[in-house]
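Repro case for the chain-ordering regression, as requested:
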Amino acid sequence: MDFEVLIENTLNALAAGITIGCIYGLMCIGLGLIFGIMRIVNFAQGELLMLGMYASLYLVTGAGVFAFLGPYVGPFVGALCAGPIVFVGGAVLHRFLIARVSGLRTAGSVDDGHFGQLLVTLGISLILQNGGLIVFGSTPETVRTPLASRAFTVDGFYGDATVFLNKARLIACAVAIIIAIALYLVLEYTRLGKSLRAAADNPTAATYMGIDVDRAYRIAFALGCGITAIAGGLMATYLSFGPFIGLDYVIIMYSGVVLGGMGSILGAFWGGLTVGFVQQCSALVLPPQLQNAAIFVVFLLIVMLRPQGLFGRSAERA
Amino acid sequence: MLEVRNLSVAYGGLRALTDLSLSVAEGQFVTVLGPNGAGKSTLFKTICGIVAPVQGSVSFLGQDLLAISASARAHLGIAHVPEGRQVFKTLTVRENLEMGAYTKAGRAQWLHTLERIHTLFPILAERASQLAGTLSGGEQQMLAIGRGLASAPKLLMLDEPSMGLAPAVADTIFERISQIHREDRVTILLVEQRVAEALELSDHGYVLETGHMVLDGTHQTLLADDRVRRSYLGLTDA
Ligand SMILES: Nc1ncnc2c1ncn2[C@@H]1O[C@H](COP(=O)(O)OP(=O)(O)OP(=O)(O)O)[C@@H](O)[C@H]1O
Ligand SMILES: [Mg+2]
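-- result from build under test --
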């Protein structure tokens, strides 16, 4: 009897771990593009997630823009539309601030512009958090969809054990996977994607090829902002959030990206998935306060065994 | 084709080039010689727009290069094979070549130029899906030249392509550059330390010393010049 409960809890934790993990994976891809590939340290990534959540919230409820789409489709379309909105915000941010501390400007400098990036993005992060507090208020919000309280049930694994698959999370997970694959294909196989990677790899040589490096960095940065914002919009359908939610997730994003291997989009996704999975499964045995500690134990273990990350491959001769 | 007039370049107050003039006519093979630190790479970087001059003008096919951005210059038909190869290490060999063909001309002739590059450097076909950072130095140099060719350039600028290569590999590289000049009719501007080989190929040579153009002429004139013979060829007398 007790054993059946244990099986049921384990299966449910695994299911939650995979669905939430995929959404974390998408969130990490946004940072993977900015930090892993373009090598820009961005401490405001958590706030982009937060902006994605609020953008989606206001699209769906605030202005009633998506009222006609209904409570089932609306929240997910809202999440998708948060992407382009934050993309534009990211492009503007890059144009006026980030461009000054990255790309050709800092190519070949001692720290590759990392100190500047650290300070600038930390400042942006503080401004967005407190600006968010003023504009959005401190009341926790959520993008309500009836799907969040419904679940598919799957049973027949073992006795009466039943796995509940939250519908909102399941759809969010599917959307996350589709966008992750699309972005991967764009980066890996299109001329635009290759030019972004070339600009990140060697900005000077990319300029010799005729690639507008400043523009490439702008696109990559904005894309990274937009992707994380979509993940935020998706998460907003099943959790409640406030202006400071970014703090909880920025660490998760960095560990996901490093875990997966810098410079690899697939790696960032798997890194995020691993983090989400560990977090959910640790809930089985650990009190909630220790869940993030569990993430870092696994993080340290993986980084000890595979310093280049799960998917990192070395491009230097040994 | 390329006209550099009275060019002066400084790095934060330190002069690297002083009142330098140079011209390359269509179809020519021009070599720039000079000791370490003479400003040869600086000249190339200025032509490509990575470094801005304090004075002077640079024009290509009648167009003022200083008026347009660095990345736009590649689209006019200037390819730069930089000092130290500078391949995209995290991209595959094929992707490096594709990035070479980023220009409109490069894309239009892609299949044709790719075949040509593979004929000149068969190793690049063999290693198509290998990461460029894991190639040997010689292979990286071939890739850098191939990448330059992929843009279907009118002018190919090469900065010390034989640097750090074994003599046999360096000979191959020189042979290929000569082929590119003769068979593909690409105008060449070359910086080299291997003076004898470089001058043999070139129509015209310039000698640069501490930022000043001290000598120029056809390869016969330069080979006959005492200073060149002593400083670069290590010959004392004939
Ligand atoms: N980014 C820079 N900042 C400051 N000084 C520089 C910079 N780049 C080059 N210089 C200086 O300008 C001068 C010319 O350098 P350049 O690289 O053009 O020489 P070079 O002729 O290509 O030499 P080599 O044969 O060794 O490659 C040198 O004195 C060098 O120290
Ligand atoms: Mg040099």
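Ordering looks correct now. The interface with chain A takes residues 48-50, 69-75, 79-80, 82, 86-91, 95, 98-100, 102-103, 131-134, 136, 147, 151 of chain B (CB under 8 Å).
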